[in-house]
């Protein structure tokens, strides 16, 4: 998430009432999670296991819960609770805006686009040309939808990320300030849910087709011409490359990459990255032909045991 204008290290420290290491006028351009940070961004880290990853990342400002040596060309924000203060920054730069109309006055809707009754279109939403948004679709703030997109009834775009910190008093949610971006020629079925990014975008690539009742987690990027069948669930921060097919009831673990041309058969549970054009099946999913061989061998076990008994 880039800020509307550049800020200084001192001004950011004042927002969260933290100490800092670096020049008062050190430039701060935005804030992002570790997997999408760029120069000028703030990244937060609150566990020693991940200190080095954050300090060595592309981020030039590290919000951290311990005074450490500051790498050259970077700055530190010292906080007793980086998770809390990252939320404060999200709330400051991307606060929740309530709506009192079904279609926000700030929404931009293209030519020849049809919005069916009982839809909600939030603040700063952009919908392209020749789209059809069926009844009871909810499109949260800042969502971007391209041209020739069809979204069927009951789908929700832009709900908060399922991202929590376990504290003694209960679960604390990381606030979501990102967006959902739907590219051109995408079809989205009924009752799908696509969560917004925490600080960046959850993206559905051009020409991809989603069946009914699909969940896509925060910051996941779906490539071009992908097919995703009903009841598939994809966790956050997954990269699905172009021309991937996921059949019904597939479950996908967070943080992995599904390579171009991959096919995952129905009811599989995928917990690892795949190879291009691979075909996978099972839970945990493995290469499909090997899995089918295993299943064939298992069927032979009673016959083998019978022969051993009679020998």
Outline the secondary-structure elements.
Elements: E1 2-8, H1 9-16, E2 19-21, E3 27-31, E4 41-45, H2 51-55, E5 61-64, E6 75-78, H3 82-93, E7 108-109, E8 114-115, E9 120-121, E10 126-127, E11 132-133, E12 138-139, E13 144-145, E14 150-151, E15 156-159, E16 164-167, E17 170-173, E18 179-182, E19 187-188, E20 193-195, E21 201-204, E22 209-210, E23 215-216, E24 221-222, E25 227-228, E26 233-234, E27 239-240, E28 245-246, E29 251-252, E30 257-258, E31 263-264, E32 269-270, E33 279-282, E34 285-287, H4 288-299, H5 301-310
Parallel strand pairs: 3-4, 4-5, 5-6, 7-10, 8-11, 9-12, 10-13, 11-14, 12-15, 13-18, 14-19, 15-20, 18-21, 19-22, 20-23, 21-24, 22-25, 23-26, 24-27, 25-28, 26-29, 27-30, 28-31, 29-32, 31-33
Antiparallel strand pairs: 1-3, 2-6, 16-17, 33-34
Describe this structure in words.
The protein is an alpha/beta fold and 311 residues long. It has 2 domains: 2-93, MurE/MurF, N-terminal domain (Udp-n-acetylmuramoylalanyl-d-glutamate--2,6- Diaminopimelate Ligase, Chain: A, domain 1), CATH 3.40.1390.10; 108-291, UDP N-Acetylglucosamine Acyltransferase, domain 1. It has 5 helices and 34 strands. Strands 8-11-14-19-22-25-28-31-33-34 form a 10-stranded mixed β-sheet. An 8-stranded parallel β-sheet has the order 7-10-13-18-21-24-27-30, with no helix packed on it. An 8-stranded parallel β-sheet has the order 9-12-15-20-23-26-29-32, with no helix packed on it. It is globular, with a radius of gyration of 23 Å.
């Amino acid at each position: 998430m880039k800020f509307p204008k550049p800020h200084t290290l001192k001004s950011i420290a004042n927002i969260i009432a933290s100490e800092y290491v670096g020049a008062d006028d050190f430039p701060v351009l935005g804030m992002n999670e570790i997997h999408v940070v760029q120069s000028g961004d703030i990244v937060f880290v609150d566990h020693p296991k991940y200190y080095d990853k954050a300090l060595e990342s592309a981020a030039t400002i590290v919000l951290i819960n311990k005074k450490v040596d500051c790498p050259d060309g970077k700055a530190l924000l010292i906080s007793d609770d980086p998770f809390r203060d990252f939320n404060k920054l999200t709330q400051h730069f991307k606060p929740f805006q309530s709506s009192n109309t079904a279609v926000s006055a700030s929404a931009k809707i293209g030519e020849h686009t049809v919005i069916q009754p009982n839809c909600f279109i939030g603040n700063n939403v952009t919908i392209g040309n020749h789209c059809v948004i069926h009844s009871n679709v909810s499109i949260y703030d800042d969502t971007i939808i391209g041209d020739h997109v069809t979204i069927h009834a009951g789908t929700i775009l832009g709900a908060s990320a399922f991202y929590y910190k376990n504290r003694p008093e209960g679960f604390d949610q990381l606030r979501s300030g990102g967006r959902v971006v739907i590219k051109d020629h995408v079809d989205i079925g009924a009752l799908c849910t696509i969560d917004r990014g925490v600080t960046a975008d959850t993206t559905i690539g051009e020409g991809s087709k989603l069946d009914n009742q699909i969940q896509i987690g925060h910051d996941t990027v779906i490539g071009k011409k992908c097919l995703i069948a009903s009841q598939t669930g994809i966790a956050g921060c997954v990269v699905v490359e172009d021309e991937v097919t996921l059949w019904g009831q597939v479950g996908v673990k967070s943080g992995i990459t599904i390579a171009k041309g991959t096919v995952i058969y129905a009811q599989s549970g995928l917990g690892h990255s795949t190879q291009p054009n691979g075909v996978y099946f099972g839970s945990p999913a493995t290469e499909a032909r090997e899995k089918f061989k295993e299943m064939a061998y298992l069927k032979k076990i009673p016959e083998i045991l019978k022969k051993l008994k009679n020998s």
